[in-house]
Specification:
Layout lengths: L7 E2 L2 E2 L1 H15 L24 H4 L12 H4 L3 H13 L1 H22 L5 E12 L1 H4 L5 E17 L4 H67 L5 H36 L26 H4 L4 H22 L4 E12 L11 E10 L7 H67 L5 H35 L24
Antiparallel strand pairs: 1-2, 3-4, 4-5, 5-6
């Protein structure tokens, strides 16, 4: 950049050339020392295996959640469309992406601090000197023209302060991108659960509507019987009560569905068209099954845990920057160009001008400011360790809860299916007994009411079982969300390569 201004005389390199050599040598030595402590990944503060997962761990060849993309896991076409739209239009996800861009720009600023800033300058100055100050007894007007390349104040990073700040910015950038992936995974989970809730309500509404139609028909029949004196008014009112209860349940379910649609539209970020489904949900066609695996293999791939580890690395680098403040700060400034009082002589050989100014500074007394900054950095590192461990423990609990829900909800579904069959038979037999005068209508009333409750409960539990599988996929850090950060994820105990 400035070599074109350098020439060699007969006796060796000129002063500017020697200056360039000195600066190059110092720049090569700068940044060779880092005062940041060696990074060590904290051990996982959880058990080595998930509870009651021996059968899952036996399948060593099975794919883990981190290798299964959401399009492969969620096989329902309608659900796939909703997730795709949410990933495009959801505002929370857009905010997370914008935060990644902000962190990337901050990393670019810190990275640029490692290099000198060069600028081209051109100055023209005219001044009039009074006679009593000119030295020649008469007023004098002088001009000065100057053109050159200037080196702004550049800190030589002998103690790694600038490089550690850059490393901290890089880790914060990677943490923000991991947080974006966590937001993406959470969004997929929320959309899937909202869709399952809508399908649950659609199925419960279908049951309620069928019950309303059946009980309305029964009410008309009983009303006719009452009019001809075949039954008492008490029996008629009991049938009417049963019908009205079903109508109220249907209205309640419709209201709840409208609320769920509004919530789903907020998640997707645009209006959605989801008419009432008129078919029962095929549980097996919604999503694939998933093995649990081991915590050490899977929890470290969860985006929130990855983000916590990046933040821990950033806090570690900040300690190095705080330690470097205790050592002298060395800076360089300089310029190389040409100056003359005449514009025509500006680019001639004798008009060449240069300046070089190294500087060194070290605060002697600052009332403990640097010590306090170091203590702050250490405290933030300790907080980052605790936050990382808490994230791991929270993730372990999420997986354990999802596994327990999947196991026990499956048993509840089977039990409720058997209960539904038993209640349907009970309602049929109660109706036969009433028709033959062997029991009061109150027995039929109780049997039909209990049957509807079990039917509704079965649909709710089936949905809860599907939601537990969605939660398990999210808790295990479901894959398929590519990182946009231009740096590899850190391996355990290793520092990522910096761009």
């Amino acid at each position: 950049m400035i070599c074109r201004f350098v020439h060699h005389g007969a006796n060796g390199p000129s002063a500017p050339a020697r200056t360039v050599l000195y600066v190059s040598l110092i720049a090569m030595l700068a940044g060779c020392v880092s005062l940041a402590p060696s990074y060590e990944q904290p051990p996982l503060p959880v058990a080595q295996t998930f509870p009651d997962t021996a059968a899952q761990q036996a399948s060593a060849s099975a794919l883990s959640a981190t290798t299964i993309g959401w399009k492969d896991y969620f096989t329902d076409p309608t659900l796939q469309g909703l997730i795709a739209e949410a990933l495009e239009y959801n505002r929370d996800l857009q905010l997370a992406i914008q935060r990644v861009e902000e962190a990337r720009a901050m990393y670019g600023i810190r990275r640029a601090d490692q290099f000198p800033t060069l600028g081209v300058e051109a100055d023209l100055a005219r001044a009039r000197v009074p006679a009593d100050l000119s030295g020649i007894g008469r007023p004098m007007t002088a001009s000065q023209y100057q053109v050159g390349i200037g080196l702004a104040t550049w800190e030589l990073d002998f103690w790694g302060r600038v490089s550690n700040l850059k490393e901290a910015a890089l880790q914060n950038y990677l943490a923000s991108d991991a947080a974006r992936q966590a937001v993406t995974l959470t969004l997929v989970e929320q959309v899937a659960n909202s869709y399952l809730s809508l399908r649950e309500l659609d199925e419960r509404i279908m049951l309620a509507q069928a019950t309303i139609a059946s009980r309305e028909k029964s009410y008309r029949i009983f009303k006719r019987r009452y009019e001809v004196g075949a039954i008492s008014k008490l029996d008629l009112k009991q049938v009417e009560t049963l019908w009205r209860q079903a109508v109220a349940l249907g209205a309640q379910l419709q209201q709840e569905r409208a609320t769920r649609v509004n919530a789903l539209q907020l998640l997707v970020g645009k209006p959605v068209d989801l008419p009432h489904a008129d078919l029962r949900l095929d549980d097996a066609s919604v999503m694939s099954d998933l093995p649990a695996g081991l915590p050490s293999d899977l929890l470290t791939n969860r985006p929130d845990i990855v983000a916590a580890e990046y933040q821990l690395r950033a806090a570690n680098a900040n300690i190095g920057a705080a330690r470097a403040e205790f050592f002298p700060k060395i800076t360089l400034t300089g310029s190389l160009g040409t100056a003359s009082t005449q514009l025509s002589d500006l680019f001639t050989g004798p008009s060449r001008a240069w300046s070089f100014g190294p500087g060194i500074s070290l605060p002697i007394f600052d009332m403990g400011r640097r010590e306090a900054n170091l203590e702050v950095a250490k405290s933030q590192r300790d907080q980052a360790v605790t936050s990382y461990e808490r994230s791991v423990q929270s993730a372990f609990r999420d997986v354990a809860d999802a596994l327990a829900a999947r196991q026990w909800l499956a048993e509840q579904v089977e039990t409720l299916r058997a209960t539904e069959q038993a209640q349907a038979e009970r309602a049929r037999l109660a109706q036969l007994r009433y028709d033959h005068g062997a029991s009061p209508f109150l027995e039929v009333l109780d049997a039909q009411r209990d049957l509807l409750v079990v039917q509704q409960q079965l649909v709710e539990t089936r949905r809860a079982l599907l939601s537990s599988r969605v939660s398990l996929y999210a808790a295990l850090g479901g894959g398929g969300f590519a990182s946009s950060a231009q740096a590899p994820a850190p391996a355990s105990g290793a520092t990522p390569n910096t761009p």
